[in-house]
């Protein structure tokens, strides 16, 4: 995934930029970057944040940044912001999204424009550089951004820093949010509204699908109207959005509480206590416990002083070790108990299996799991969403393969909770995880908890409809 933040102020923007970008740290684990403009000059820093928090990597740079305008990003893929010289002028750019036809567009640019791209260390082309190249084909920024949005298969939200202000553009189908905030003497653009209150900003406006705006310290100007076709990513509400944020006017924590409550309404299992797998299962568990009127406890606590969520090593074995070290079991709350856990989702299930094993080792009598969304059958083709990178790794797809011996088939029956195929798949996952019971959220209940109309939400991960 990734996230970005931009600010234009009458005073120095540096502190707001630093903290505003930091509030997007939960969206990516690979690279962080900041750029400001002052004295006819771009200032820029980019760091690897795989093994350290954004703030610790950038706090020594902040004193060297100057200016009233700046953009920053947390990226799961490429080095950003890029600084571009073009016929549109000089600008810095950050993007969030995924370009499925990147190779095709690069080859097209080679043939029609005889241009070139710099390679990243892994030999691939930086997608943000490709977006900048597409934008430069336009006579204006608006035309260029629209050309880029139309050319790419996938999605792309963009911030462009110029000497006069910041262009903010939301992806064509609004899969990722882009919101504008205001305070006396400054405007900002953000993907997470949780960045606003502690910096004194008020949420002012949410860009619609494909909408383009230009912000200065004086205000915002709409440069391209939104379309009617909104497909905001449902996973923002279920898992990766920050609980204090709102998109389309709907708070994340509130919708997670509603998810948990819906799970409880469909349940009749007798248990001693309700818990969430920390951290993202916690809000769902609160909703479940309140609805079922059963006690909410924390049989696992997370060692937060040194294991922040943003620390995400690339090696799977190290990731598994980190997942284990982070969660500390409490025997008093586990031994002899019938436990029901809420979890945001089950992706591969490998770490969850290990967590469940530990519960039994600590004397749990029963372990019941209630994921807040339906089984993940498809991986995300629209965002660089690391949770579902490889389809064949998904717990649901592995179960389907075990049941059918096929990787390619019509998956529709497995997306309908009433079919025998769905029930067999869920039971196979339950056996694999060694759970007493496993009951997934129904798609309709998840949509109802988010409380946007189905046609405005991307649910591709679950039913292939995006
Ligand atoms: S496919 Fe899944 S992760 Fe991707 S945008 Fe749609 S709901 Fe979100």
Helix/strand class: alpha+beta
Largest sheet: 7 strands, antiparallel
Beta-strand portion reads: 15-25%
CATH class designation of the largest domain: Alpha Beta
Sheet with most strands: strand arrangement: 3-2-4-1-10-9-11
Write down the overall geometry. Answer: globular
Number of strands: 23
Which parts are unreliable, with pLDDT below 50 for 5 consecutive residues or more? none
- Can you tell me the CATH architecture of the largest domain? 4-Layer Sandwich
User: How many domain units?
Assistant: 2
Helix content: 25-40%
Alpha carbon gap, first and last residue: 17 Å
Which small molecules are bound? Answer: iron/sulfur cluster
Q: What average pLDDT do the residues reach?
A: 94
As for the CATH topology of the largest domain, it is Glutamine Phosphoribosylpyrophosphate, subunit 1, domain 1
CATH superfamily of the largest domain: Aminohydrolase, N-terminal nucleophile (Ntn) domain
Q: How many H/I helices?
A: 15
């Amino acid at each position: 995934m990734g996230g970005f933040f931009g600010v234009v102020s009458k005073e120095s923007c540096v502190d707001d930029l630093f903290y505003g970008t930091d509030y997007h740290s939960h969206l990516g684990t690979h690279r962080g970057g900041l750029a400001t403009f002052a004295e006819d000059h771009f200032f820029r820093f980019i760091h690897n944040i795989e093994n350290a928090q954004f703030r610790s990597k950038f706090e020594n740079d902040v004193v060297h940044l100057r200016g009233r305008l700046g953009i920053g990003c947390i990226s799961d893929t490429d080095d950003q912001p890029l600084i571009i010289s073009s016929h549109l002028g000089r600008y810095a750019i950050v993007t969030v999204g995924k370009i499925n036809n990147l190779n095709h567009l690069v080859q097209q640019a080679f043939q029609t424009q005889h241009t070139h791209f710099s390679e990243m260390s892994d030999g691939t082309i930086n997608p943000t550089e490709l977006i900048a190249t597409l934008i430069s084909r336009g006579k204006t920024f608006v035309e260029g951004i629209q050309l880029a949005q139309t050319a790419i298969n996938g999605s792309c939200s963009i911030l462009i820093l110029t000497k006069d202000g910041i262009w903010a553009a939301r992806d064509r189908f609004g899969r990722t949010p882009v919101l504008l905030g205001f305070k006396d003497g400054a405007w900002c653009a953000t993907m997470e509204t949780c960045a606003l209150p502690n910096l004194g900003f008020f949420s002012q406006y949410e860009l619609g699908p494909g909408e383009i705006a230009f912000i200065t310290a004086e205000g915002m100007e709409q440069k391209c109207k939104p379309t009617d076709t909104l497909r905001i990513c449902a996973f923002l509400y279920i898992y990766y959005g920050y609980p204090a944020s709102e998109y389309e006017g709907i708070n994340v924590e509130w919708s997670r509480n509603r998810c948990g409550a819906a799970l409880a309404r469909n349940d009749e299992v007798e248990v001693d206590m309700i818990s969430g797998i920390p951290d993202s299962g916690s809000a769902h568990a609160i909703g479940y416990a309140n609805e079922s009127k059963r006690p909410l406890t924390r049989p696992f606590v997370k060692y937060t002083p040194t294991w922040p969520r943003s620390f995400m090593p690339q090696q799977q074995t190290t990731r598994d070790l980190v997942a284990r070290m982070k969660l500390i079991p409490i025997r008093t709350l586990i031994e002899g108990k019938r436990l029901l856990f809420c979890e945001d989702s089950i992706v591969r299930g490998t770490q969850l299996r290990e967590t469940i094993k530990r519960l039994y080792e600590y004397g749990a009598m029963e372990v019941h799991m209630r994921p807040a969304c339906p089984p993940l059958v498809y991986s995300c083709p629209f965002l660089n969403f690391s949770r579902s990178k490889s389809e064949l790794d998904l717990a649901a797809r592995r179960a389907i393969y075990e049941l059918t011996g096929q990787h390619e088939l019509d998956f529709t029956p497995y997306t309908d909770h009433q079919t025998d195929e769905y029930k067999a798949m869920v039971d196979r996952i339950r056996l694999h995880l060694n759970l007493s019971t496993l009951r997934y959220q129904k798609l309709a209940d998840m949509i109802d908890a988010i409380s946007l109309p189905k046609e405005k939400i991307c649910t591709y991960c679950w039913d292939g409809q995006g």
